[in-house]
Each structure stands twice: as C-alpha cells, then as structure tokens.
C-alpha cells in the first residue's frame, strides 16, 4: 500500500473502522458480563437456552466487529471436530492479536495469563469463554495448568473445547518454533488448526523480521500494526482445520514426541520450516536487568540441551540452591562424565555428554560443576541476574569474610553474560577497597545499583559494544580464550 493511500485511509476509513470496532466490543460486554455472573471456574456448566442465546449473540457481534476491521471474508477450510471427539485444538502460528478471530468464531476456551482478566472490556470477554488461567506468580503454575487442561480434556465433551497455541509466544510466522507439551500431556486426540494471513503487505504480525526472531515490538509499534491493518481495504485470513491426529502409544507416553510430530504436520501444511527455538529461548533473548545476557548464542545452545535432558522444566529456585550447596562441598573439585551424571541423577547419554563437553575447559574430560549451576540458573531465570550472581558468590566465597577472587568473578560474569575474555580492571580501580583483588557480593551489588550501566562502563570483554562489533561465544565454560583465535 502506497504512502499516499495510507494517508488517505488514515483520515477516512481508519477513524470510522476504529469507532465501529470499539462500538461492537462495547456492545458485546454486557452480554459477556451477564452470562459470566454466578459462574464457577471449575464446575461443568449445563448449556441453558439463555446461555446458548447469549453465545449466539456474542458470535454475531464479534464477527461484525472483525468485519468492520477489514476482515470481510474469512476462508475456513476443513471441518472442526466436535468437543466430544476432540477436546483440544492446537493452533499455529501465533503472531498477532488478530489470532483471536478463530476463538471468537468458536467460543472455545483458551490458556491465558491471569492478568488478562483485568483488561478493560476485553477481560470480561475472555472470562466468558472460561479460559484456563495461568498464575505466573505461583511456582507450581505450570503443573496446575497442565492438570486443569487434562481435567477438562477428559470430560468427554462436557467442557468447551480448549484452543491452545502450543508455541506459547508470538513469532513472525516464518517458521514453527518448538511446541510446549501442555496440550499433548493428556495423550488424547487433537485437531491441528493452521492460520494464514495471505496479504501482500503484512500488517498483522507484531514481531521483528527474521526467521529466528520472536522479539515483540513495543506498544507504539503494536498500535502502528492496528492502524495499518485498519487502513487496509481488505484483510484476508484463512483458517484450516486439519484432520484429527490420534497419538500412538509411544506418543501417549512421550508428550514431547507427540508435540513434535504434530508440529511437523502443521509445518508441512503451512509450507514453513521448523526451528529448534522455544518459548524459554525467547525469554533468554529478551532478558532484562543490570546483568542481562549480552550474547545469548551459547546459552541458547545450553538451554536446548538441558530441555532435552528434562532439566529446564523441573528447575526451581530450591533445586538450584540445593545444587549450589552440593557444588560448594566439592570445593572446586572437577567432575568427569560419570560423576556429572551422578550429580544430576541422570544416565549417561549423548545429550548429557554434549552438556558436559560445553564446560570442559581444558579438554581433559573434567568440569567445574559450579560453571554448570551458574549457567542453569542463568537460563532458568534470565531476567533475575542478581539472584544468579548471589548464588554464584555462595559457591565461590571464602568462609572468613565472604569475598571472592577477581578471577572467579571473571568466570561468573563470562558465563552469565555469554561473553569471553572479561577484564575487571575498570571495576576494581573504581572500588574503594584495601584488597584490590577480592570483592564481596554486597560490595558488587551496591556498586551495580549505583552504576546502572555497569556492563557498558566498567567491564571489558571480547567484542564489547564499545568496540563496534558483535561476537559469538563458542562455549559456556567461562574460560578465557586467545583473543587472536
């Protein structure tokens, strides 16, 4: 669409469409609010005549809303299975808030974060479809969510179908990332559903361009997407219901295999490649905080390996603390592959061997387990770098005064930031401390609080931003490498 056309549509069509879309959304609110009164989030609800009437009214209103937004004709291929036959619909790719269209057309339940319920107007509409809410503040949220999905899926159609976006995050639709296992743990048949937006000008996707990118744009850019979409004369959309996928006995026992096979089927229908990135990888690449990951290449590789070992999903703060205590008792003793497997209570496999080799500094088959614990904490809570730093200090600090050596802090920061050849001379020269080669956690924490641009100003490492180039680390082992290699 040319700029002149956008300008014309912005002052003619856009305000009218925005007004109509807002009107129909507000019109839907009293219906959803009334139908939600006195409802239990956990009890099966019989469909009385008046609730069926409200459901029909909401479908008509929401379809009118999307029509006013430019989605005039929505092409539907295939046939949606009955809830008694298939309790779960797996939908991909997930790229936009316009992916809500198939939800409003079917009034299926969805899996969404609890905060969605507080969104004005839209939150009431979300509550009406009886979603499975995710309590992110609850450490057991993932387990409880899976249990609720399983409970509803096994109701033999008494609960509404659950429409799940198994990618768990928005992508740019150029590939399918790894599916989360929640939809596949019940081991029941699922119906894959694929979405297409065949417009030449993509105005619906809210992620950066690039096959592997899953980074969302900011709020202003999201409004820009809404603006450009409402300026389009027509926004085509296709919804295709693929044949029901019934898992084999092996897939029932292995939800990850089940999820991956469904993903392959959907990728083939979409004619897009697969990529081994996941929702957790997205969190790593978008890490925040004073020690946010600078170069996440090696940590993404490590994260994918620990996910394959089943370590990522089961990792909690208490488990990390326990591993750190056990690492402290080793006092820096290095572990071979067999001892490493025993430390993690896992069998020796090819994947475990790969993880072990990532931390093999000297190529002698021995690793410092503290490096592994730091890396695991980093990928488990990428936006809580100070908690990881505190955990690392506990493993290295002296019993006398709780300080650690400069060389140990160098190793810690190399792993946490995903960089090489960290130099701390700028930091230690700025510290008013008698012993210039040691530092405590409290001293470093206070210094970072006083200097929010700590990494940029007081650290130096290979391919630092000030050197105007971007490097890629080759391993997570915290080892200093030859700068000339």
From TrEMBL:
A cellular component annotation (GO) from this entry: endoplasmic reticulum
Record SMART domains: PlsC
Phospholipid/glycerol acyltransferase domain sequence ranges: 88-198
Any one GO biological process: phospholipid biosynthetic process
Chief site of localization: membrane
Keywords: Acyltransferase, Lipid biosynthesis, Lipid metabolism, Membrane, Phospholipid biosynthesis, Phospholipid metabolism, Transferase, Transmembrane, Transmembrane helix
Domain of life of the organism encoding this protein: Eukaryota
Pathway named in the protein's UniProt entry: Phospholipid metabolism; Lipid metabolism; phospholipid metabolism
Gene3D superfamilies xref list: EF-hand
Gene Ontology molecular function: 1-acylglycerophosphocholine O-acyltransferase activity; lysophosphatidic acid acyltransferase activity
InterPro entries attached to this UniProt entry: EF-hand-dom_pair, LPCAT1-like, Plipid/glycerol_acylTrfase
Location of this chain's protein in the cell: Membrane
PANTHER family associated with the record: LYSOPHOSPHATIDYLCHOLINE ACYLTRANSFERASE 1 (PTHR23063:SF57), PHOSPHOLIPID ACYLTRANSFERASE (PTHR23063)
Family the UniProt entry places it in: Belongs to the 1-acyl-sn-glycerol-3-phosphate acyltransferase family.
Name the UniProt record assigns to this protein: Lysophosphatidylcholine acyltransferase 1-like protein
Biological source species: Lates japonicus (Japanese lates)
């Amino acid at each position: 669409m040319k700029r002149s056309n956008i300008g014309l549509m912005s002052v003619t069509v856009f305000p009218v469409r925005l007004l109509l879309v807002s009107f129909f959304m507000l019109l839907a609110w009293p219906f959803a609010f009334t139908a939600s009164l006195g409802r239990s989030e956990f009890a099966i609800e019989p469909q009385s005549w008046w609730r069926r009437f409200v459901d029909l009214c909401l479908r008509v209103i929401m379809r009118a809303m999307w029509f006013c937004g430019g989605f005039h004709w929505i092409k539907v291929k295939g046939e949606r299975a009955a809830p008694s036959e298939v309790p779960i619909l797996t939908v991909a790719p997930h790229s936009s808030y316009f992916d809500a269209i198939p939800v409003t057309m079917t009034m299926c339940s969805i899996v969404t974060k609890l905060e969605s319920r507080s969104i004005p107007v839209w939150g009431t509409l979300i509550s009406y479809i009886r979603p499975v809410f995710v309590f992110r503040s609850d450490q057991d949220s993932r387990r409880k969510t899976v249990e609720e999905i399983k409970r509803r899926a096994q109701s033999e159609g008494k609960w509404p179908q659950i429409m799940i976006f198994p990618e768990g995050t928005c992508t740019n639709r150029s590939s399918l990332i790894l599916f989360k296992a929640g939809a596949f743990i019940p081991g029941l048949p699922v119906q894959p559903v694929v979405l297409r937006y065949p417009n030449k000008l993509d105005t619906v996707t809210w992620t950066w361009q690039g096959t592997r990118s899953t980074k969302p744009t900011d709020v202003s850019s999201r409004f820009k997407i809404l603006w450009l979409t409402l300026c389009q004369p027509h926004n085509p959309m296709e919804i295709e219901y693929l044949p029901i996928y019934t898992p084999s006995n092996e897939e029932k026992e292995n939800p990850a295999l089940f999820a991956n096979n469904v993903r392959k089927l959907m990728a083939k229908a979409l004619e897009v490649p697969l990529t081994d990135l996941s929702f957790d990888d997205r969190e790593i690449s978008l890490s925040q905080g004073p020690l946010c990951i600078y170069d996440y290449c090696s940590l993404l590789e490590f994260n994918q390996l620990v996910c394959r070992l089943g370590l990522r999903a089961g990792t909690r703060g208490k488990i990390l603390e326990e591993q750190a205590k056990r690492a402290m008792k080793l006092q820096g003793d290095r572990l071979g592959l067999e001892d490493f497997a025993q430390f993690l209570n896992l069998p020796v496999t090819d994947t475990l061997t790969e993880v072990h080799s990532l931390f093999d500094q000297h190529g002698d088959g021995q690793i410092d387990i503290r490096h592994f614990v730091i890396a695991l904490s980093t990928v488990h809570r990428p936006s809580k770098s100070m908690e990881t730093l505190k955990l690392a200090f506990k493993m290295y600090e002296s019993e006398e005064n709780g300080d650690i050596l400069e060389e140990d802090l160098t190793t810690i920061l190399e792993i946490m930031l995903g960089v090489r050849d960290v130099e701390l001379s700028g930091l230690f020269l700025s510290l008013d401390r008698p012993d210039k080669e040691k530092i405590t956690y409290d001293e470093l924490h206070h210094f970072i609080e006083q200097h929010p641009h700590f990494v940029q100003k007081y650290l130096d490492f290979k391919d630092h931003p000030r050197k105007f180039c971007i490097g890629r680390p080759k391993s997570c082992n915290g080892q200093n490498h030859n700068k000339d290699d």
